[in-house]
Amino acid sequence: MDGPVDAAPEGPAVVEDAPQAPARDIGPLVAELRAIVGDKWVYTAEHELRTYESDGLLQYRATPAAAVLPNTAEEVHAVVKACAAAEVPWVARGAGSGLSGGALPVEDGVLLVLARMKRVLEIDLDNGRVCVEPGVTNANVSAAVGPGFFYPPDPSSQIVCSIGGNVAENSGGAHCFKYGFTTNYVTGLELVLGDGEMIQLGGMEPDAPGYDLLGAFVGSEGTLGVATKIWLRVVPSPETVKTLVAFFDTTHEAGEAVSEIVQGGVVPGAIEMMDAKAVEASEQSAKAGFPIDRGAALLVELDGSARECEARFDEIVAICERNGSDDVRVARDEAERQRFWRARKAAFAAMGRISPNYFVQDGVIPRTKLPEVLGRIEALGEEYGMIVANVFHAGDGNLHPLVCYDGAVEGEAERAEELSALILDACLDAGGSITGEHGVGVDKKKHMPKMFAEEDLDAFQRLRCAFDPAGLANPGKLMPTPRLCGEVPGPYRIHPLEAAGLAERF
Ligand SMILES: Cc1cc2nc3c(=O)[nH]c(=O)nc-3n(C[C@H](O)[C@H](O)[C@H](O)COP(=O)(O)OP(=O)(O)OC[C@H]3O[C@@H](n4cnc5c(N)ncnc54)[C@H](O)[C@@H]3O)c2cc1C
């Protein structure tokens, strides 16, 4: 994560919702895993497994039977094959910075930790491509191809989160408004599927023919298999970057400024907003000199050719002023720009300065509904007597309400969760979604039926069955209720296309 990490959203477990597998003797499997990766890289002792009991959403915890840390794709392949033969479920884990419980282990299962696989395998700048192992951090992809090129999707956790995790979550970040999400940059994947088969989808080329299976895998949250090699598109670094932060009395005014900027046809590299509570927390940690008595801070970054940036920048300053900002600060140099960004990127972690615990949410709304939904969130916070700080990707309408609570107070954690659910409902009512970039994981699967009909969930399940019929890859995530891949019961009926000789069953 960029900036200091002060506190995690720690607290007593709110929900013990770990996927449970029936107790089994995995001793023989562990012996096999040790033979594959070496004794040193298989952990089974309780104190060793502690590190892996949760991801960045600490409200959910579970201990796997074993954590295995392969060093190569061949070792991953052998580990998954061994799990398949033993019918033991497994969960892939990158850096464990996920915020939806996606890498929560299966108790009695195996955790496949990819952190050792952090080699950059090939750089081909002539074709704007880089091929990496899944454990490479997001920031290291840009570092590998810089300074002339960069990898645009940039989660605020970019100095720790892995590209494998980014692919699984279809991660976003501050610059996705202009540049798009992970899915727009993955051109190829080497995968090991649940049954141990190793396949490649795409590669260096921009768009392989056939169904977009690559697109299906990106964002599948580790439920379709594990990525062992990833081909990414990288783009030339912009000639100039210009950054400002404008302070407003209310988020409403700042939200109106966002709408006007976008409607005016300007496409900033980033438009990020923090409300008063988020600024208060972040300022204590990042010390960027942001005033803590204003209602909202809007960080806008333009990038591109120097001429275009100059001209557009004046327009943005004017829009901010027209919408009520009397304090617009322009970064005078790279050091000041980095200070502005530090304030934004430290915001999650700095919440520990103002609250013992917090729940991170990740809803999306149409951008034009920002003022309305922020007002609704404020009203819900007041109704529950809880602080809700907001820090978010305003250009994408991707909200991150941080619901603050004190886990030491009986019932507070449950009320915070209830309030979080109502916030997601407000996003759905506004025509939005329950997640923008953090994924469904274990945390939001109960909300899936609010967005999808049973038929839609069945279609998801059929896709999953095509990749992982035994359901061993990250079970218990994404789907609201456990489903199995199997024959539909009932007598076999000949299909009209078969009868007509136009199709055959295989
Ligand atoms: C302070 C902070 C700020 C953040 N900011 C952002 C942000 O701006 N934008 C954003 O999108 N996210 C953000 N996140 C969330 C998180 O960093 C991302 O979801 C990230 O992509 C997770 O990567 P990871 O390596 O930590 O994955 P993990 O947490 O280890 O795993 C996440 C999911 O990916 C699966 N997985 C991991 N590796 C593989 C693999 N090789 N193959 C298949 N599946 C795999 C896991 O099974 C799990 O389902 C933030 C998190 C924190 C803590």
Lateral arrangement of strands in the main beta sheet: 15-12-14-13-18-20-16
Whole-number count of domains? 4
**Proportion of strand residues:** 15-25%
Mean pLDDT: 92
**CATH topology term of the largest domain:** Uridine Diphospho-n-acetylenolpyruvylglucosamine Reductase, domain 3
Name the overall outline: globular
Q: Number of helical runs?
A: 17
Radius of gyration: 23 Å
The overall strand count is 20
In the predicted model, the low-confidence regions spanning at least 5 consecutive residues are 1-17
CATH class of the largest domain: Alpha Beta
What does this structure look like?
33% of the residues lie in helices and 18% in strands. The model is unreliable at 1-17 (pLDDT under 50). The protein has 506 residues and is an alpha+beta fold. The chain folds into four domains: 27-113, Uridine Diphospho-n-acetylenolpyruvylglucosamine Reductase, domain 2 (2-Layer Sandwich); 120-236, Uridine Diphospho-n-acetylenolpyruvylglucosamine Reductase, domain 3 (2-Layer Sandwich); 239-344, Alpha-Beta Plaits, CATH 3.30.70.2190; 355-467, Alpha-Beta Plaits (2-Layer Sandwich). It has a seven-stranded antiparallel β-sheet, sandwiched between helices. Strands 5-6-10-8-9 form a five-stranded antiparallel β-sheet. It contains 17 helices and 20 strands. It binds flavin-adenine dinucleotide.
